[in-house]
């Protein structure tokens, strides 16, 4: 017998891992060589043993491959970073180890009560990749519901499963026939299904089922591990956030304590609003505005523009109502209040967001600012009373000890022998509520003191004594600025300059008369001095008996008969003349103004002609009559 016809040849075939069909070769050659039957039986037995050995080696190689895949899966789990990557690796290995056309995984959706496609490998159908399976429907739905493996060699023809149109359409579009599904289990709970499927009918053997069960167990561990890692990360993030919050809160509390101590020290050592603003910005950063109740700037620290007036009014009102600082865009507003009185606001543009403790710092700064403003007001009111009493004594009649007045003025830093002007403000500025009168007087006191002068309330009017020589300019400035404060036109009359207590007292009388004259001349809401009123100013400046006698003589000579006639009979000839001249000599318009008939005006003017003479309407006489009427009115108002 040749070597090629001996059992050794089967060992050679095993050694080179020949295909099973090649093991028939030695038998075919032996039959062709005509070997006896006993030799052929020996070769047949050797072939059978060789094939069994080959099958055993094949199973061991396959088992080695499976164990290697499981080892790789365990390695993936040990270095788990991304759950999707691990699940894709498991599904890919399932497809590779089972030699399947497609492998995929579904997970249970507890909220919707079904199972959905999570990962696929080898799939070509988008519809299949989006499938959702109701519990109990299809092979996968049954596995997910029961928690037991299921296998079918031909799913479309297998009536063990509840077929639905959506599932069958997806499976059909993918072209799947044989399907194996095993549960993903965590303890006694099924969380999903791992599948291997082929596009041709073939059974899955027990070893393949066991292998897929092992991969499914690893996939379940991966999912649970990822969940635990996610929960751990979330807990760590929450702890880190809590720690950050605690540190920030601790830091803010320390800042608040430091700011409180610093602002308390400011109050004790007599600091101002500017110091409070600087302290706030040093603690909180950013820039700050301190504004009074009228929106005027009290202090500015850093680069910050004044906000829109309407926006600021709304924000401050909200802060006052809520009793807290409020945010509007990048700015924080804190109302400065004392009881129900609005004293102003702090406007902060911080560099960083404010936490609660930082807001408390701003609100405490607003409280300290209110205390400082009230203290400043109290001091100003006390000083204003002293200065007001000096001016009241200075313009009183009869004038008291002038040397004592000079001494009191020097203590206030005022030289009464230097040029001063007197300004009288009309009752149109203070004919309102008591609070409005106090507001006007407070403004006048501040206005005068900042210019080195005095202010006082006297006989329902406000009087200012201001250093300088421009009486008219001072009157106009006072009228303009006070009109802005009160929101209504203000009339101011002035006189001067004058030096010394005696002259200043007389100058007040002229300023007061000038104020009255402005009203009589229809110039309410203006400011002017006696020197700017023409002949009226000359009248106001005639002080003494001789001046009064000259005026009386002129009135008697010019319109005396008319004045006497009205006085004896209670008629209205003077008023008729004023109306007649006031409308340019029009009888109809004079009658309309007097609310009488034109004939009545004509009869009254005829009576005037009888009293004054027929030439009273000639230009020269008419001018004297008008002048006399104006002097009579001014004399009546100023007497």
UniProtKB/TrEMBL annotation:
Q: Read off the InterPro entries from this record.
A: CdaR-like_regulators (IPR051448), CdaR_GGDEF (IPR041522), GAF (IPR003018), GAF-like_dom_sf (IPR029016), PucR_C-HTH_dom (IPR025736), PucR_C-HTH_sf (IPR042070)
Domain GAF, by residue range, is 82-233
Q: Which superkingdom heads the taxonomic lineage of this protein's source? A: Bacteria
| Family under the similarity heading | Belongs to the CdaR family.
* PANTHER family recorded: CARBOHYDRATE DIACID REGULATOR (PTHR33744), DNA-BINDING TRANSCRIPTIONAL ACTIVATOR ADER (PTHR33744:SF1)
The protein depicted here goes by the name Sugar diacid utilization regulator
